[in-house]
Design goal:
Layout: E1 2-6, H1 10-21, E2 25-29, E3 42-44, H2 47-55, E4 66-74, E5 80-92, H3 93-102, E6 109-110, E7 115-120, E8 125-129, E9 134-135, E10 139-142, H4 149-154, E11 161-173, H5 179-185, E12 188-194, E13 197-204, E14 217-225, H6 230-236, E15 247-248, H7 255-268, H8 271-279, E16 284-290, E17 297-298, E18 301-303, H9 318-335, H10 340-372
Parallel strand pairs: 1-2, 1-10, 2-6, 4-12, 10-18
Antiparallel strand pairs: 3-5, 4-5, 7-8, 8-9, 11-14, 11-16, 12-13, 13-14, 15-16, 17-18
Length: about 400
């Protein structure tokens, strides 16, 4: 089949690689004019996310991920108040994206292609892009993220809902931290939980992808509540006066917000974690959303990953969900080789169920820290996983 994948991030690339491997003619249409780059985001590397690289790409996990062996909680005074032995893998969005892109035909990865129109009926499927390109594929996979044009066109009533808080994020080279701080954070994902907030730090590969000690980055994610609309609007209005919808990138947060966050970090956080926040050169924020859909399939077209479900990040499963959507789509098409619409119809129920279960779980976790105040160190329900804690 001729397959159009709209959106060239991790979910779209996973689908594209799998379907190209299966013998289909796959073209990825990415709206960005340049290859993508996440501005300093670490990710929990779950099996679904790395499956393609390991099974099909021959990549060693040791080359793209940092392993930690502890889940650690600090008290306000910096003392360890809880420590569980638990193995996690952490990587960076950039590292995984680069490895996936190397395994796809660059000539079929088309930049500067912004989707503007979709025409679907019983016998035809037509996609129109802003530059005037029109394609009529046998199958369309819409993996165009939180701000999905495809979802807005096909399901205009399905819109992201603000969860009540944002994630302050950033990275710092581990060598910029003092030795005491590095020892306190070593070999662990480290949490601090306090009233209506929590923060976590963990090591990820360096900007060049290196996982060697001394060349890694320390990634910080700090969840903070902001009232909508006024407080949130103010935070999301950047240095140029433009109100952002999803995130304020590094370098564009207003100075007064950065100063406030650093002051709170110095006053409220354990010294080791505060040092990380204060050492980040370019803090940025991402809004935490909930988004679900009633449908993922529209004839011979489907929504995949964040274009369909946006779950809060507390299960570290956003990229894993997108990858699992891609793998199960591959399997459904293999089982229905002459009937793409039938394949999608068979694929949809399971992915709707998975998305709803993940979203319900991450909503509950977020409420525990940001609202109810009953997050408990060592609770097994807080373990990362796509299908459930540790699963």
């Amino acid at each position: 089949m001729q397959i159009a994948v709209v959106g060239g991030s991790l979910g779209g690339l996973t689908a594209a690689c799998l379907l190209a491997d299966a013998g289909h003619e796959v073209v990825v249409y990415e709206r960005s004019p340049v290859e993508l780059e996440e501005r300093g985001a670490g990710i929990g590397l779950l099996p679904e996310t790395y499956r393609y690289l390991v099974e099909r790409g021959g990549v060693s996990l040791d080359s793209i991920a940092v392993t930690t062996d502890h889940i650690r909680y600090l008290g306000r005074d910096g003392a360890v108040v809880h420590d569980d032995a638990h193995r996690y893998l952490f990587s960076s969005w950039n590292t995984v994206y680069r490895e996936m892109l190397r395994r796809f035909d660059r000539d079929a990865y088309r930049l500067s292609h912004e989707l503007v129109d979709i025409d679907i009926d019983i016998d035809s499927l037509t996609l129109t892009f802003r530059d005037g390109v029109v394609v009529r594929p046998d199958l369309a996979v819409f993996a165009d993220g939180v701000g999905s044009t495809a979802r807005a066109t096909l399901l205009p009533e399905a819109r992201p809902t603000y969860a009540g808080y944002v994630a302050w994020r950033g990275v710092v080279p581990e060598t910029d931290l003092n030795l005491t701080t590095r020892a306190a954070l070593d070999d662990a994902i480290t949490y601090y939980v306090y009233a209506n907030s929590h923060i976590l730090v963990y090591p990820i590969p360096g900007r060049d992808g290196s996982v060697a000690a001394g060349r890694r980055l320390i990634n910080v994610v700090w969840y903070r509540n902001y009232l909508a609309p006024d407080d949130l609007d103010d935070l999301l209005t950047d240095t140029a006066g433009y109100r952002r919808e999803v995130s304020v990138p590094p370098g564009l947060l207003r100075a007064e917000h950065i100063a406030e966050a650093r002051a709170v970090a110095a006053a409220r956080l354990p010294a080791a974690i505060a040092e990380v926040v204060l050492a980040v050169e370019h803090l940025f924020v991402q809004v935490v959303f909930d988004l679900d859909v009633e449908r993922m399939v529209f004839g011979r077209a489907c929504l995949l990953g964040d274009a369909a479900f946006v779950a809060r990040p507390h299960a570290a499963a956003g990229t894993a969900k997108a990858a699992e959507d891609a793998w199960t789509l591959h399997d459904a098409l293999a089982a229905h080789p002459d009937d793409p619409a039938g394949a999608l119809a068979a694929w949809e129920p399971g992915q709707l169920c998975l998305g709803r279960e993940l979203q319900a779980r991450t909503r509950a976790i977020g409420r525990r820290s940001q609202v109810d105040g009953n997050w408990r160190a060592g609770d097994p329900e807080l373990i990362f996983g796509l299908r459930g804690p540790g699963k």
